[in-house]
Every structure is written in C-alpha cells, then in structure tokens.
Amino acid sequence: MNAAEQAIGLELATKIAAVVTLFKAQFADAKADLKPWANDPDTKEHIDPDSIDIGFHFPGWSRSIQSRSILVQIRFYSNALEESRRAIGLEAAGFTHLGEQWRLSTIKDWQFVGSTEPTHEVQEKLKLFCRQIFELFNGSETGSIT
Q1: Residue 144 domain flag
Q2: What domain range includes position 129?
C-alpha cells in the first residue's frame, strides 16, 4: 500500500520518513515517491494492506544500479490482539523503461535475481538498507539476515 496512505499516526509517519532518510543515505540522488501505485480499481485490487510501498527515482538510468527506479515494499505481520506490527520481509525491485530488471527479497537467501543485477557495491548498500529497516521496525529482532 502506498506509504502516504499508511502514514497514519505520528509513530508510523516518523518511521516512513526514516525509511526515506536511510535510503537517501545510501543513494543521495534518489527522489522518494510515497505514492508509487496508481489510484485505480485494478491496482487497488492487488495492493497488500500489510505493506508500506515507496518508490525511489533517480535522475537517469544508473549503470551501477542497473535501473532508473527502485520500488521498496516492506511487508508486515499485524497482530490485532497485541496491537503490534512487525516487519517480516522486504522486497526491492529495480525498473527501467523496459520493466523490472532485478529483484531482491529478504525471504530465504537475500539473492538478487533478474535480467541484470546491480554492482556488488550497490547490492551491499541495498542489503545494509534492508537490515536497517528491520532494525527500525523490529528493534533488535532482525530475523535471518545474511
């Protein structure tokens, strides 16, 4: 779900702002898009209400990143009984005008897959960003991070 729609309450809005800051610490020229999904019925049908989705756009295609935009989806498990929300996974996907070029999922082995991949340095920056997101939302409970 678009981050702008999830930013209800001061605590969550602050964490969303922190996500943007953490990403920009790794990729200073990125511009955040808190509404990466279109507001149409077809798109809304496929939106995960237990995720925070943020797009990051670069001034042009980046050779090291192998994309022009990165979509970040932070997935949560919500426990209504405990009134808690815990980050359980993160996916990042790089896009060009040709569509998705690569994807990173923190589920299982944190590997990049796709027709192209970012450089090793960029991969490490993205993995660091993912670890920071788990720490931001879960504290010291980071799960199986490699």
Answers
A1: no
A2: 3-138
Number of domains in the chain: 1
Distance of CA 55 to the CA centre of its chain: 8
H helices within 27-144, ranges in order?
A: 41-45, 120-138
CA 97 to mean position of chain CA atoms: 19
For residue 146, pLDDT over 50 is answered with: no
The helix/strand/coil state of 67 is strand
Q: Which of 118, 26, 126 is nearest to 64 (CA)?
A: 118
Max Cα-Cα span within the chain:
47
pLDDT-derived band at 50, boundaries 50, 70, 90: confident
CA–CA dist 40, 42 (Å, integer):
6
Q: Roughly what angle, to the nearest 10 degrees, separates helices 120-138 and 10-26? A: 160
**Rounded Cα distance, 26 and 51, in Å:** 22
Strands 99-105 and 84-96: antiparallel
Write the pLDDT tens digit of every residue in 75-126. 988 765 555 678 999 999 999 999 999 999 998 889 999 999 999 999 999 9
